[in-house]
Specification:
- By secondary structure, the chain is of the alpha/beta class.
- It has four domains: 86 residues, 2-Layer Sandwich (Gyrase A, domain 2); 253 residues, HUPs (Rossmann fold, 3-Layer(aba) Sandwich), CATH 3.40.50; 58 residues, no CATH class; 113 residues, Isoleucyl-tRNA Synthetase, Domain 1 (Orthogonal Bundle).
- Helix content is 55%, strand content 10%.
- It is built from 23 helices and 13 strands.
- The strands form four sheets. Strands 1-2-4-3 form a four-stranded antiparallel sheet.
- Helix 16 packs across helix 17.
- The longest helix is centred in the middle third of the chain and has 25 residues.
- The structure holds arginine.
- The site of arginine (ARG) has 10 residues, from helix 14 and strand 10.
């Protein structure tokens, strides 16, 4: 029996076929397939109600027509029943469950199935994108880990993904940085903690400029020199960028975060005049008090709140470079979709950017990519306020990650003191970094969340330690039996799932594609986290209910098969989220 990877999509297609053969009007029929409450089946189609209502038909009668017209191939792998006013419930047969599970034998097979979800789409994903010469702090972690997960997930689901770290490497802060570098630099401090020192000279230059008008003038002078291409200042600018890039790289390496490009704001300097010209020529932009601005008359706020695309002193700003960025990503990268990750406080900027881009591209007859501002909430301390150190400074990311690994080390040592030191160190790094990462991903990104060490390092609940531990539990079943989970011979001769616990686990496995679909359609990794957490829970119930290594070879094979696939999906899912999994802990 051939059972497709994405069963929801297969059932969607079957219902559309049924509608056509029942001579129902197919235009505007969306079956709306969802995973069902397990008490009712595996999938349910909710779309009949709206469809029938819009045409003044009896929804139950329409549902009956559809079920009667279902293709024979569909009824080979599931049964369909009608519930309530016109929902259609589908329940997979045990042999279909077995066929699906058998077909997903490796990461490559799953990836081949998932590729249909986003095949043929090219995404540019702009994430992390910190500002030069500023330390990465806790606030930066969300964009990094959510961005990395989104890139991995989209690529796994067939998309072509171009990752761009849009560094904030241009702007007025360089006046102070360059002046500070020339007058206040402590070379020793620069070699021990370069970013710390850059931040210090920036703050000191800022204070000096505030206190002394002569310094303020000098700072402005340095900026003007940089902008007009002065060789010495350009060299210093390059140096400052390089120093800060290498500090960023250290953290990216630790967190396994990758980019294809680091174009940065400065890359767009020579592409700005075209933006000003086209937007002015198309009458989208107008002069207002010396600045160039765009209003959106159809928008309740942006009809009066301007999108300033060039400042009154003629200088470029965040909006200018972002407009040029939209154009470059569309024309040079030929992006079908542009995704930018920042915290939710920048929502207005991106809304204005997108409104402007749509009008500009339409006017100039350019292809319009899709655009998604993937925004996220803040990380709060246990007092519910923005998370800070005791002295009130933002917590440095480096320090946070080091603390996570150290805390995990204490936990791991308490749990498994017999493991060699080196292995405990490795486990702590996977658990500690995984905990920070997973805590972030498991939350709906739109909400703020409260950071708590106890919670994120707990072995209970929807946490990294719980899931990493679940992986090692399945692995240990194979280890104890002297088997390799990737070796298909142990699962040969498996019969279809039978007992309630086997069936429940098998069904949960088949819901993986739906979790991928939901996660990548909404660019919200927490859907995948929830799925993995539920899968681990289903596995626990199964393992509590059934003995795996039993005499009967067919029963043993099918239970081992369920274990092997649980392991494969848990590991695949966790790797997509950026976690490292372990053989034991
Ligand atoms: N550098 C900005 C910041 O730290 C984020 C940039 C996001 N990307 C963009 N194309 N605007 O807030």
């Amino acid at each position: 029996m051939h059972v497709s990877f994405d069963l929801a999509a297969a059932l969607d297609a079957a219902l559309r076929t049924a509608a056509a053969s029942a001579q129902l009007e197919t235009d505007g029929f969306n079956p709306e397939l969802r995973t069902a409450d397990p008490r009712h089946g595996d999938f349910q189609a909710n779309g009949v109600l709206a469809y029938a209502k819009a045409r003044k038909l009896n929804p139950r009668a329409v549902a009956e027509q559809l079920v009667a017209a279902l293709p024979a191939a569909t009824l080979e792998f599931c049964t369909a029943t009608i519930a309530g006013p016109g929902f259609i419930n589908f329940t997979l047969t045990p042999s279909a469950l077995l066929a699906w599970i058998q077909a997903q034998g490796s990461v490559a097979q799953i990836k081949a199935g998932a590729a249909s979800l986003h095949h043929g789409h090219r995404y540019v994903v702009d994430f992390s994108s910190p500002n030069t010469a500023k330390q990465l702090h806790v606030g930066h972690v969300r964009g990094m880990v959510i961005g990395e997960a989104i890139c991995r997930l989209l690529a796994f689901c067939g998309a072509e993904v171009i990752r761009d770290n849009h560094i904030g490497d241009w702007g007025t802060q360089f006046g102070k940085l360059i002046w500070g570098y020339k007058h206040l630099l402590d070379a020793n401090a620069l070699s021990t903690d370069p970013l710390e020192e850059l931040e210090r000279i920036y703050k000191a230059a800022d204070a000096a400029a505030k206190a002394d008008p002569a310094v303020l003038d000098a700072v402005r002078g340095e900026l003007v020199k940089l902008q007009s291409g002065d060789a010495e200042n350009l060299a210093l600018w390059h140096k400052i960028i390089a120093i800060s890039a290498s500090a960023f790289t250290e953290i990216y390496r630790l967190l396994d975060i990758h980019f294809d490009h680091q174009l940065g704001e400065s890359f767009y300097n020579d592409k700005l005049p075209q933006v000003y010209e086209e937007l002015t020529a198309g009458k989208l932009a107008e002069e207002s008090q010396g600045a160039l601005v765009v209003f959106h008359p159809e928008h309740p706020r942006f009809k009066t709140q301007p999108f300033i695309i060039r400042k009154s002193d003629g200088a470029a700003n965040y909006a200018s470079t972002d407009l040029a960025t939209m154009l470059y990503r569309t024309e040079h990268f030929k992006a079908d979709a542009i995704v930018i990750l920042t915290d939710a406080r920048q929502s207005d900027h991106f809304e204005q950017l997108w409104l402007t881009t749509q009008k500009w591209f339409t006017q100039t007859q350019r292809a319009l990519p899709r655009f998604n501002h993937v925004s996220f909430g803040s990380i709060l301390g246990e007092d519910g306020k923005a998370i800070k150190t005791r002295s009130g400074d933002p917590i440095k990311l480096k320090a946070l990650l080091a603390e996570a690994i150290e805390r995990a080390y204490v936990l791991v040592t308490a749990k498994a003191p017999e493991l060699p030191e080196l292995e405990r160190r490795e486990i702590s790094s996977a658990v500690g970094l995984g905990a920070i990462r997973y805590a972030d991903l498991a939350q709906n990104r739109s909400s703020d969340y409260v950071f708590s060490w106890d919670k994120i390092l707990s072995f209970e609940g929807n946490t990294a330690p719980y899931l990493l531990y679940a992986v090692t539990r399945v692995r240990s079943i194979f280890r104890k039996a002297g088997l390799d989970p990737a070796d298909a011979s142990a699962t040969q001769g498996a019969t279809p799932p039978e007992s309630p616990a086997e069936l429940a686990l098998a069904r949960k496995l088949t819901a993986f594609p739906t979790a991928l679909q939901l996660t990548t359609a909404q660019l919200r990794p927490h859907f995948l986290c929830t799925y993995l957490y539920e899968l681990a829970g289903e596995f626990s119930s199964f393992y509590a209910a059934e003995k795996v290594i039993v005499e009967d070879s067919a029963v043993r094979a099918r239970r081992l098969l369920l274990c092997a696939r649980t392991l494969l999906l848990l590991e695949t899912g966790l790797h997509l989220l950026g976690l490292r999994t372990l053989a034991r802990m």
